[in-house]
Amino acid sequence: MNVLKPRQSVPALEVDTLNGNWSLAAQNPENFTMVVFYRGLHCPICSKYVGELDKLAGDFAEIGVSILVLSGDERERAEKARDDWGLTNLEIGYGVTTEQARDWGLHRSAGRGLTSIGIEEPAEFSEPGLFIMKPDNSLYWSQVQTMPFARPHFREIIGALKFALEKDYPARGELS
C-alpha cells in the first residue's frame, strides 16, 4: 500500500464518471480539488456521508473547491447510488481499479454478502478515503480509513479550508 505525502504530487487519476471522462490532471480549481472515495452503493453510511457532501457542494464551490466522489462500483450501481441517494450536485466517478486504490493508499476489503440494507457487497471494494489537492496536484490533506465509521465532517472541512486559505496555512505531515 502506498502512503501519500503532503506537498508531493499525488498519483495520476483518470476515471469514468456519469458525465463522461474525468482526469485529475485536467482540473483547474481556484484553490483545491477534493476527491472522496466511498465504499459503494452497498454502504448505508456512504449514502448519508455522500448525501451530506451533495448538500454542501455549493459551499465548497464558494471557496474554490471542485469535488469528485468515486467508488469501484460499476456504472449501473453508481447511477443507482445517484438516484437512490438523491445526488444532484456532485460529479460521480465509478470503476476505481484495485491498482488505483493501491496507488492512493486505500485499504481494501472482501465482500461479505448482503449489507444491513439488503444490497450485496462487491467481491472486493475500497474503504473510504478523502484527498484534497492544490491546483498543482500536490497533496494538501488526506484521510484514509479502514472502516466506514467516524468520517471527517464536511462542515468542519469547509471551516478548516477557509482558515487555511485565510492564514496561508501549509500542508502538514510532510516528514518521513
Q: Helix and strand succession? A: EEEHEHEHEEEEH
CATH superfamily: Glutaredoxin
Q: How are the strands of the largest sheet arranged? A: 2-1-5-4-3-8-9
Q: Separation of termini?
A: 16 Å
Structural class: alpha+beta
Largest sheet: 7 strands, mixed
Rounded to an integer in angstroms, the radius of gyration calculated over CA atoms is: 15 Å
CATH topology: Glutaredoxin
How many E strands?
Answer: 9
- CATH class bucket: Alpha Beta
Average pLDDT number? 97
CATH architecture: 3-Layer(aba) Sandwich
Account of the 3D structure:
The chain is an alpha+beta fold. It has one domain (14-22, 29-165): 3-Layer(aba) Sandwich (Glutaredoxin). Helices cover 28% and strands 23% of the residues. It is built from four helices and nine strands, in the order βββαβαβαββββα. The strands form two sheets. A seven-stranded mixed beta sheet has the order 2-1-5-4-3-8-9, covered by helices on one side. A two-stranded antiparallel sheet has the order 6-7. It is globular and about 45 Å long. The two termini are 16 Å apart. The model has no long low-confidence stretch (mean pLDDT 97).
